[in-house]
Design a protein that fits this description.
With 232 residues, the chain is mostly helical. The chain has one domain. The protein is built from ten helices and no strands. The chain is globular and about 60 Å long.
């Protein structure tokens, strides 16, 4: 029994277990967004199909939330090496589904409108410069979606409150914001230049990198909003 415990506490075993967990979560993530995968195969990504892509893309929200929830569980329970990762993922998916869908619907609607506006102004000779305004707006929407999505997995706040918390932490930790923007730009560039199918290959690594940078934000939210409220 002692030898078995020492084996499971070895660095090599823990590393291999973490990698295998990430792989299992990644497979579950791909299954959760299977409708998006089918659309990538059979539906052209164009302005004509934006009304189809927008609602389908909402399914990304609960899948991302489930994977983030699994990673947070792993971070909070590093010694729990034997919990079924498939069960953990789908339990997290079910638990966060409604809240994630609400947040995802809001951001997918905003992003769809902004993308249509970008395409509209890029074809205009007079107001073409306005497309850059909407590109910046699109980038801000994506960053807010990331910050608010992570908070939404761990805590239960109103969407307005999560937006304020996200903005506050962005201003408090500029370095983390720059890193998140860099990861996001790199992620979008890989998917854009190498093909949409790379969304399924690099998504888990992207989530892991972003979450690693924003873990202190959850402690900050807990200390400044949860703990103070309970103390009051």
């Amino acid at each position: 029994m002692v030898e078995n415990k020492q084996f499971t506490e070895g660095k090599l075993y823990v590393l291999s277990k973490n990698i295998s967990d990430l792989f299992i979560w990644h497979i579950c993530f791909c299954l959760a967004i299977a409708p998006v995968f089918l659309c990538l195969l059979f539906l052209e990504f164009s302005m004509r199909n934006v009304l189809i892509w927008a609602p389908i893309s909402i399914l990304l929200a609960p899948a991302f939330s489930a994977e983030i929830s699994c990673m947070l569980y792993k971070n909070d329970n590093p010694k729990d090496l034997f919990k079924g990762q498939v069960v953990l993922f789908w339990q997290s998916y079910k638990k966060n589904f409604v809240d994630a869908i609400k947040l995802g619907a809001i951001f997918c609607t905003i992003i769809a409108i902004v993308i249509v506006d970008i395409a509209k102004f890029q074809t205009s000779e007079t107001y073409g410069f306005l497309s850059w305004f909407f590109i910046i707006l699109l980038a801000l929407a994506l960053i807010f979606a990331i910050y608010m999505g992570i908070i939404n997995v761990k805590f239960k706040f109103r969407i307005r409150d999560m937006a304020v918390m996200s903005l506050s932490y962005m201003l408090l930790n500029i370095i983390a914001l720059v890193k998140v923007i860099s990861f996001t730009v790199l992620f979008i560039a890989v998917v854009f230049y190498l093909g949409n199918m790379w969304l399924f290959i690099v998504s888990t690594f992207y989530i892991y990198a972003v979450l690693h940078e924003l873990l202190p934000m959850l402690d900050w939210v807990n200390a400044n909003f949860i703990a103070k409220k309970e103390a009051a």
